Amino acid sequence: MDDVTFTEAFRDPAIARGLVRDIQRAADRPMRLMEVCGTHTMAIFRHGIRDLLPPAITLLSGPGCPVCVTDTLDINGFIALSQREEVIVATFGDLLRVPGSFTSLRREAAEGADVRVVYSAMDAVTLARQHPDRTVVFLGVGFETTTPTVAAAILTARDLGLTNFCVYSAHKVVPPALEALMQAPDTRIDGFLLPGHVSVIIGTEAYRPFFERFGLPCVVAGFEPLDILAAIGDLARQIADGRPALTNAYRRAVGDAGNPRARQVMAQVFAPCDTRWRGLGTIPASGLAIRDEFAAFDATRRFKIAVVEMPEPKGCLCGPVLTGARVPTDCALFGKRCTPTDPVGPCMVSSEGSCAAFYRFQR
Amino acid sequence: MPDKDKIAITLDHGAGGKLAHQLTTELLLPLFDNPLLAQLHDGAVFETDQGRLAFSTDTFVVDPLFFPGGSIGELAVNGTVNDLAMCGALPRYLSMGLIVEEGLPMADLRRVLEQARAAMDLAGVQLITGDTKVVPRGAADKLFINTAGIGVVPPGIRIGGDGARPGDRILLSGTMADHGIAVLTQREQMAFQSDVRSDTAPLNAMAQAVLAAAPGVRVLRDPTRGGVGTALNEIAVQSAVGMTIQEALLPVDPAVAGICDLLGFDPLYLANEGKMLCCAPAQQAEAALAAMQASPYGRRAAIIGEVTAQEPGRVVMATRIGGRRIVDMLTGEQLPRIC
Ligand code: SF4
């Protein structure tokens, strides 16, 4: 991590130029490629990768920003919890600014709610130990990368006998969302750039059923510019040759089987459930609920959270943006009523949201 | 959209990005408007019968009080010294106001003040007036410090955010984000181990050396809160010029870069407390660079880009791999991402 020459090796301009030439050669027709991971979206914008690609290639940002796909119902639920006197809400920072139907966690904090930013679920456990007279609710948002750490935190809390720690699980898993994307209206995707971090946990083979069903080029990619360019080149070649495959362009981190130990911890605490995604609706078996055995650590069972169904903000195209049917600049509010300072939809809030990335890097 | 007066101040308003900028331009400026304030520089420069003076103030709240490489004491001194230095002034006198929370250990206060004193000696300034208030537990967090400072601007020196001209080279005096990461990792001890140290340092000597070596320099700025990215945007807007910076030329400590990657932070937006930016005419850029590098606080100084005539107000980065992207102002505090 702290070896700059290692990082620089993945940002080498000469190699990048070679990879871009490969892409240019392969891109013999319009190709719509979707990156399904917010970290990819960020990396693509930060390194100016869109700028290097031939016009035939369109990159779409999929539903891979955990904050963006969190349903308004859940956001409202988080906020409702923060308003309770006895509760300390522990959350990752990006959730703070997401507007619920009426307010955001950040505004509630300004009004007196106890909302703390943590860097891991384990930090929230520490917080619970430090405040035995309060109940710490950790807002569990994220994909397979985050969930094992949350599961581990719940196991730790149980082993410590903590009774004042619980989790609001809005966790999601990636493969079912890919299937839902293929069935979303107006979506045309020719290939997928699959998320590297998630794949470290679930392994390449986790995408096999999806690949067999839809026969679309799928490449697992890392996050350095050269990783991404190489993966795009691989996708472009597969499309040009008409030979779709499920390949792994991130071998230094991802194996076929992923990390069985992390998955086992995850499965011990969580069970699959249907869940709502912003923009995609309810997707079967795409969420993770806390198992009955750990009910004491489930915020949704400990607290009666009354939340009302509210329509999405008027004019916000986050839904179709998340499925790749539209791009942020299609939205009439983009850059006018909706900016990172005053966001209307979640895609403008999270640093990894596609609207925010477009606004910050590409106007 | 919320009615602007109904919303409460959030932490984002203090983070040195767009919202802070709005707070200044939409609330403070209209209320107190005058030509000196409207310079919107780190400090104000005004004429007196005896010559020109620079005047600046800054308030310091930092958690924790002590962090690797410094403490709130040094920050409070260097912060104001640097604001004056960025006006091209020779800092002379400081005031210091302390707001102390009931219960602060006397030893901590002493240590902070001793370090403030040492920083003043290093910068060559004197404390000439001060004030102390103690507030009940909970009414402040341990210790807040305000300092104000006065400096003398040598004849002929005119520095401001509006002096950048197309063709100027942009210089940065060293690695970005060291202070931001040092404080962050100290605060979040649970999650990180790192030996990144704050860069807090007085920049007055370096600033004077740069001005002596490159008299054509018209812009100096210390990229504190909001980082290099925000400071460049401010200069680009005030000077109505474009800027292009080269990612490959930006100095970043490898450990800092690693932590930033991990948290999804961009070092361009993290605070520095001992770095300066300067825009120098192309023919004087090398001289300015040499002056920076000769300072103990500027060894890793670099020319990071160029002022352009294109797209006034916009800062663009040429990325290492040959792409281009916008460098926007920071909007609100950077928040660690969920992965
Ligand atoms: S620009 Fe704003 S309103 Fe439009 S889709 Fe994006 S987040 Fe929603």
From TrEMBL, chain B:
Stated family: Belongs to the HypE family.
PANTHER family: CARBAMOYL DEHYDRATASE HYPE (PTHR30303:SF0), HYDROGENASE ISOENZYMES FORMATION PROTEIN HYPE (PTHR30303)
PurM-like C-terminal domain segment(s): 165-316
Name assigned to this protein: Hydrogenase expression/formation protein HypE
Lineage: Bacteria, Pseudomonadati, Thermodesulfobacteriota, Desulfobacteria, Desulfobacterales
Pfam families in the cross-refs: AIRS, AIRS_C
GO BP term, pick one: protein maturation
Organism superkingdom: Bacteria
Source organism per UniProt: Desulfatitalea alkaliphila
Domain PurM-like N-terminal, first and last residues per copy: 41-153
